Amino acid sequence: MTEERHTVRLHVNGHVYDAAVPARRLLSDALRHDLGLTGTHVGCEHGVCGACTVLLDGRPVRSCLILAVSVDGQEVTTVEGLTNEDGSLGPVQQAFLECHGLQCGFCTPGFLTTITAGLRDNPTPTHEEARDMIAGNLCRCTGYQNIVKAVERASVLQRAQRAKDATVVEEGAHRPSRDQVTEAGT
Amino acid sequence: MGQPVQRVEDQRFLRGQGKYVDDIAVGEHALHAAVLRSPHAHARILDIDVSDVLDLDGVHAVWTWDDLADLSAPMAEPLPLLIPHPTLINGRTQYALAKDEVNYMGEAIAFVVADDRYVAEDALARIRVDYELLTPVVGIAASRAAEHLVHEDVPGNVGARLEQENGDARAAIAQAPHTLTLDLDIERSSCQPMEGRGVVARWDADLNRLLAWSSTQTSTGVRAAIAVKLGLDLGQVDVITPDVGGGFGVKINHPWPEELLVPLAARALGRTVKYTEDRREHFIATAHERAQVQHIEVGFDDDGRLLGLNVEFWHDHGAYTPYGLIVPIITSTQLLGPYKPQSYRVVFESIYTNTVMVTPYRGAGRPQGCFAMERTMDAIAQYLGKDRTEVRAVNFIQPDEFPYDHGLIFQDGRELEYDSGDYPASLEKIKALVGWDEFPAYKAEMAAQGRQVGIGLACYVEGTGVGPYEGAHVHIETSGKVKVATGLTTQGQGHATVFAQLVADELGVRFEDVEVVTGDTRRMPYAVGTFASRAAVMSGSAIHLAAKRAKEKVLRIAADALEVDEKDLQIVDGVVSVKGLPEASIDLGTVSVLSNPLRYAFDEASKAATQFSVGDPGKPPVAEGDEPGLEGKDFYSPERATFASGMHAVIVETDPETAEITILKYAVVHDCGNLINPMVVEGQIHGGVAQGVGGALYERMAYDESGQLLNASFMDFLIPYVTEIPDGIAIDHLETPSPLNPLGIKGAGEAGVIPSAAVFASAIEDAEGFTIKAMPISPSELFHLRQSQEHR
Lengths: 186, 792
Known about the structure:
Number of strands of chain B: 29
CATH architecture of the largest domain in chain B: 2-Layer Sandwich
Number of domains of chain A: 2
Distance between the termini of chain A: 40 Å
Structural class of chain A: alpha+beta
Oligomer: heterodimer
């Protein structure tokens, strides 16, 4: 008995992948094992810890609760897709670095994707809103103190970057497009 | 040293480029393993039928205990008892796959290797096992009652009984002006790192060697175990610990069955094999900790001075004892904290239950010891009507009394002798930080509003940096880059950063030119592991010493090349120069070239090192007693542990209606000697406090009477989210250097979690006005406690 496989077209971080997977293949497993994008981590396999969070058409979802065949044609953003086009750290990543927002790093990708989506919905969170933004993700190392700081720092960095980008656009120069492309997809 | 340097490892973690064990061998058609686990807590295995598995497409192997001896004879023997102790007369360990009997729900019975994990789990579902159910022994009370036995040949379910005494505590209590008795209870919890265990192994038939990756806290330990169990020479086995997604103690126990079965399968099948533990397996098949029942008798004078302290406790070690008596020994010794009772007796029994085995979890027995001692201090203060800080202060070991010998034997087999500390100073700091003296006014103010608040305090001392040793190798390459290796592993502590700081300081090189590798037996085969808050102390000291060795050689060669005295040289940013004469200089890369006399020049730089250009033609190119290459290697092996300390205080509010417990303020004073990187140390404290909040207020292992673990998931076992953790943790540092190591440092990893149960019990008791004897405590338990108080 060989398992039937289904062809699925996955759009991940701006790239297109065609994969043949069994119907029961989880999106998390497809990303990690079929596509080799191992930045998405699996911590509990039942949607509680949030380590496997990816953005599906811009919305945060638990990739351990989604079948790969069900996201055919949809836009997936993983932690690997959060860096700036020039390869530098994106604002949420940079904020985690500056604030010591990670220790073992295993839960970090899920926080980064969650906060990326959170700051898109609410670019200037209050302190309470910053805490709420990460209230669905588990971290066993940091006690969350510096992750909350990182949310607030990311908000500042993101606004600074947007302001800079806007100035550059006004001047008619090259426009860094990662944010805009992702947003266009949402 | 002392700077909050940003972490170098974060770059890869933040980009999703970390390499955890499940990220190894992706895309190379590795085979995947899965384990059939016992659904029963106690049963005899009558028959295992795997015939239905064999015709399943994609299955490569299915093994039970019966298959192991043919694969490698030692595999059919029980797993090792890692830390024997003379009093552990009834130590028992499990088999890699159960032989005849299972003793906890989750014990490994069969092992399947298949094309992927999905197919492997399909196969598990086809294995049929016939069991004869035996009565399970669950909980300390049932174990002590011993109406049923976990192991037929272990009378009374007692694995070990250990007694230590300094002075005559019972006589002192009998003669004391005041006495009290306490009966206390602490439940099970567990580490729950976000990444579970995992193993990958690859057998290289061409080289006749095995390479294994494991998410472990000791790669050298796993390597030795694999070699013995697979009948290989140590030199045929390499173990790499890649990035590890948290450990907190549970990954120091080894070898786990899969750490042997996966390499065995890799060799037998000639394929790369991977096992990745899932979360349910982590709950039911990987270690727990904490459960103890304690009975304390104390005699004291009018000031609360401890005249005699007599402690008995029963330690639930689960079904097996692979890690010996380390946890209860630590409880029994570290219980003393910063205090000096005039006499102390402790006796414990380490007892069997049909539950998951117990091995160290962050704190490793200290939280329970701290709970016993600090509950006692609070009880004495209550009895005498004194402030809780006063009773503690009269019992402190004073700064001029170090080194202080407690007259007991610690977990490492050495005397329990504290090296340094300043407990009165810590107490002053914590009182100021939490607002201890102002609290009564605040409490009254809150009471006027119908709100109920309480303050708690707990003090601890933590033996850190236990031996036997760690080593380090520092290699200055011809590029001037510095490659450092130490053998212990990393699971999030930022070793690549803090160890690079130490090397940059000692060697005079740029921080960014130093690269640190940990946990790779190919790079440093002599090592112990990362536990007991020992990495910074042990490997930090070894790295410092190894860098010193390398520096000595640099100066020797540079002095020769520059024709000056070594004493006149300095190294700054990777350049050796003559002090006050910067133009007379040589960079470290060139020194490295000169250190290795060559016959063949392979590039421009190496021309400087050929036999026609280096050294005195009248002497051997490599001097007697010297070695080619610019390297330094050294080991650090201390006489005994170094003792860090600290104090926590918390203000809680308890809801008069719902009994919800809210943390209003959390304060920490922490003394781990000199700080290498304060940012990293504070991160460790934050994480420890959060884990402590979980352990005190939320987390427990809910076993039913049949030994079923009812809450084996993150949905049911309540790890705190940010919403449960205080918004801000006030931290103050005291830096009392250790005289035992060259850097004056002490360990910091576990400290944050040690006083949690004690400090919350103290604060909730203060808020509620009745005694708290058992932890953890949930709102519903507090609610029921209130009701039982009213019915008194």
